[in-house]
Amino acid sequence: MSDPAQGASEHIVFVTGKLARPRLEKIAASLPARIRWSIADAGVKVAALMTEEIIKRRVAIPDGATRIVLPGRCRANPDALAEHFGLPVERGPDEIVDLPAWLGLAGRSLDLSRHDVRIFSEIVDASKMSPEQILARGLDLARRGADVIDLGGLPDTPFPHLEASVRALKGAGLKVSVDSFSRDELSRGARAGADYLLSLNEDTLDLAFETDAVPILVPTRPEDLPSLDRAIERMLKAGKPFIADAILEPIHHGLVDSVARYRDTRARWPEIEMMMGTGNLTELTEADSLGVTALLMGMCSELSIGNVLIVHVSNHTRRTVEEHDAARRVMYAAKADAALPKGYGRELLALHDKRPFVQTPEEIAAAAAEVRDPNYRIAVAEDGIHVYNRDIHRVGTDAMAFFPDLDVKSDGAHAFYLGGELAKAETAWRLGKRYVQDEPLDWGASADRPSEDTTAFKKAGHTKHSGPDAPFPGTRDARAPETGPSGEKIVCGRLVPSDEG
């Protein structure tokens, strides 16, 4: 236990297992002296397999404790344990190395629940879709994070079902904008109940006085900022709401000048609402869109641009709604802290992780030396992929090269499982991503995370479930302990005494 700090108001109890305790003690010892802590060993080797009953029965909480922290992968129910111990119980980070940041010692708390940017998500070919298809698409975009569904009209393409589409979206409780070069379509959309019109310039601005829809104002030509200024002045004089967009241009077609126009517009009009259309960069640059989006949302944050118009046409921008949603939250939090956008989670990191390797080769070797069973563990460190059990410890960088060393020639299902895990481990090592056996790689905002019940054990997989070659606890075959016919516990297919974890 740490030395009690003078006037310390908090005493944290970290619950862990035998294998993780040395690493936890090392990390905890590095915490500031003001944090008082204790470690409660539940008496099981693998912390992820602790159950509520084991914790209730074996863990003693010292006097003065103020909260209890479980390992991130522990499947016990924190609420049930909180009721048992009479103290707050939380699930900590998955990896021990992340504990200081999880405790807020990076100087900030991680709250990504807020943002100040409205996302307009365009359905570019709405005129070619039925109202039913448009509604389904709009609901999907809203689920992903869009705030306004933008109906994009196409030149010389009739849109006879525009009104029906607007009404369908509004009937579902969605905000709607109509985006068209046709004054007639804009007028029809507004009369049908559209909330916003994209886009009006000083030549078409009269339409803004015929409807309650909020217009997005643009210059008559991208480089003609005085025309945008005149439109802004007219709307301000009339006291009507509007949003101004200086128009972002693609690379080699005026990008830098257009960024300067946004800066100049904000400088001249510090209080107005503004919009940036990001598609000219995300769609027209064949680069991973997440980084491009993060940069653009950083510009919006600096310039207090509270609206973005996004579009998904190219396959490489298929996650653009989720990426903009993640970026607006990170930038809001960083701006509120007057900080760089660093240390606000992994949502904007897809290919590479900031701290990819959570164990050193020496720590893995020490863990391997403690293994007494034939089940294979896989870990990744800076020197490569580690595969070990009681008989071997191999290190390499080619997943396929491990096969001759693995005793699975007669077990096709186990070989299939190990092949999948090793391929994933190789991907993680080559890219510099975190690898955890039996867990999917984390691709940030670029891919959905599988939904997971954090209080339930993983379902049994397709490798061996019982006998001397039962899988290592924590693999896909790890299951919640069941009770055998004589009160024994069945853990990962093995019958063990009821007091064994």
Concise synopsis of the structure shown:
With 501 residues, the protein is of the alpha/beta class. It has helices at 21-29, 52-58, 78-85, 99-102, 131-144, 162-171, 183-191, 225-238, 255-268, 279-282, 289-302, 320-336, 361-369, 412-431, and strands at 11-16, 36-41, 67-70, 89-91, 118-123, 148-152, 175-179, 196-200, 214-217, 243-245, 274-277, 307-311, 377-381, 384-388, 393-396, 482-483, 489-491, 494-496. The strands form four sheets. Strands 5-6-7-8-9-10-11-12 form an eight-stranded parallel beta barrel, surrounded by five helices.
Structure write-up:
By secondary structure, the protein is α/β, with parallel strands linked by helices. It contains 14 helices and 18 strands. It has helices spanning 21-29, 52-58, 78-85, 99-102, 131-144, 162-171, 183-191, 225-238, 255-268, 279-282, 289-302, 320-336, 361-369, 412-431, and strands at residues 11-16, 36-41, 67-70, 89-91, 118-123, 148-152, 175-179, 196-200, 214-217, 243-245, 274-277, 307-311, 377-381, 384-388, 393-396, 482-483, 489-491, 494-496. It has an eight-stranded parallel beta barrel, surrounded by five helices. A hairpin with a 5-residue loop joins β16 (482-483) and β17. The model is unreliable at 1-7 and 462-501 (pLDDT under 50).
